[in-house]
Fold this sequence. Notes:
The protein has 2 domains: 3-265 and 471-491, Aldehyde Dehydrogenase, Chain A, domain 1 (3-Layer(aba) Sandwich); 270-459, 3-Layer(aba) Sandwich (Aldehyde Dehydrogenase, Chain A, domain 2), CATH 3.40.309. The protein is built from 15 helices and 21 strands. It has helices at 3-10, 53-68, 77-93, 95-106, 110-131, 167-180, 195-206, 221-230, 243-255, 280-292, 312-324, 344-359, 393-396, 412-419, 435-444; strands spanning 19-21, 24-26, 33-37, 44-49, 138-139, 146-154, 157-161, 184-188, 214-216, 236-240, 260-264, 270-273, 304-308, 363-366, 370-371, 379-380, 383-386, 403-409, 427-431, 449-452, 485-493. Helix 4 (95-106) crosses helix 5.
Amino acid sequence: xxxxxxxxxxxxxxxxxxxxxxxxxxxxxxxxxxxxxxxxxxxxxxxxxxxxxxxxxxxxxxxxxxxxxxxxxxxxxxxxxxxxxxxxxxxxxxxxxxxxxxxxxxxxxxxxxxxxxxxxxxxxxxxxxxxxxxxxxxxxxxxxxxxxxxxxxxxxxxxxxxxxxxxxxxxxxxxxxxxxxxxxxxxxxxxxxxxxxxxxxxxxxxxxxxxxxxxxxxxxxxxxxxxxxxxxxxxxxxxxxxxxxxxxxxxxxxxxxxxxxxxxxxxxxxxxxxxxxxxxxxxxxxxxxxxxxxxxxxxxxxxxxxxxxxxxxxxxxxxxxxxxxxxxxxxxxxxxxxxxxxxxxxxxxxxxxxxxxxxxxxxxxxxxxxxxxxxxxxxxxxxxxxxxxxxxxxxxxxxxxxxxxxxxxxxxxxxxxxxxxxxxxxxxxxxxxxxxxxxxxxxxxxxxxxxxxxxxxxxxxxxxxxxxxxxxxxxxxxxxxxxxxxxxxxxxxx
Length: 494
């Protein structure tokens, strides 16, 4: 990958995208489209179909028909594996094209996007392709005259609603295990980040995935997302996004067919720094990237920095230095370290959080403002806010932007209390040289992922999921397969 290749792809026009339903490119039944604005410059990049409830119902019907006739669900593990592996190879072959398309759509810096998007997506799909023929049923320990067997069967039709921050990566977390287990899928991408997923779905069909097994419908969440969630023919719904939307999806499940709903709803993750951290300079740099990469638009971002009082001032100084040294700008430049905010709406929301922090006595040490406005794009300076109290808005609510809230603590017990003082529980970290303290913190902090002397980087071998209002169920690892199978008992009298 070099800058010339990136610039060549950037210069290409992006043709409008339609739905993918039953293997066909299908316009919205209303004939309407939606403009896609690039966060790089605020200009129209292309259009996608503005779906209707009828469009979504057609996609669900196609997925149901494909599942029931066994064109995918009825194939043996070796056949499904072959297709998924070819799909992963095609994603790798088109990696730069996919990454640039995605960056033009959502603003992630290209250096991160190439790894986190096509790189992660192909690896995830390959992981589940290799896993699918190693999923065994069970034989129960019964009396000699009984054979008790537990079969694992695909659930049927899976609805997947994908967010805008890492659409390919998170999309693959849903698609990989769902398709590996033989299900059919209907995917609804975000209105502000559909393009790379649509192209990835085209590559799935090129790899040999049968028509109707993977369908993609674009449009507004309040229309097509709602129709997907209310469908009586969707068996499982998976979603990554906001808590408010997650609540509505659960309500829609109750109003329809009581489909299982698995939600990853973000977090307000604590990054706890003790004075005995093995390398405070390294911890400061990692803490900065733990919140500012992808402009803070990361579910597991370390958005709360809890620092032992004895090192608070010097550590904050080091974090501010790291933040101010980051190159914010054109996300398609290899020199950029922090890209654009996904949309103007999100940018304005971030700035409103900063204003609220100031009104609640927070101290803006650096950042806090929109930058590079002359580009027409959506950029924000990495922002550090100190003197943040336990109950402050930016300590309690997910900003989903480049805003770091800093709070001091004096004791281990206080650090634990602060860490557990929100409704969320997705990720966290502790930095210490004390092994006993590290283990105690891992146990005491209520979260799905706890890092020790690092932040981020957990690969596909371990699950990602939250506690509290960060959601339920898990993406990644073999545990993710559980969401996409039904257990069936066979009780046989011999």
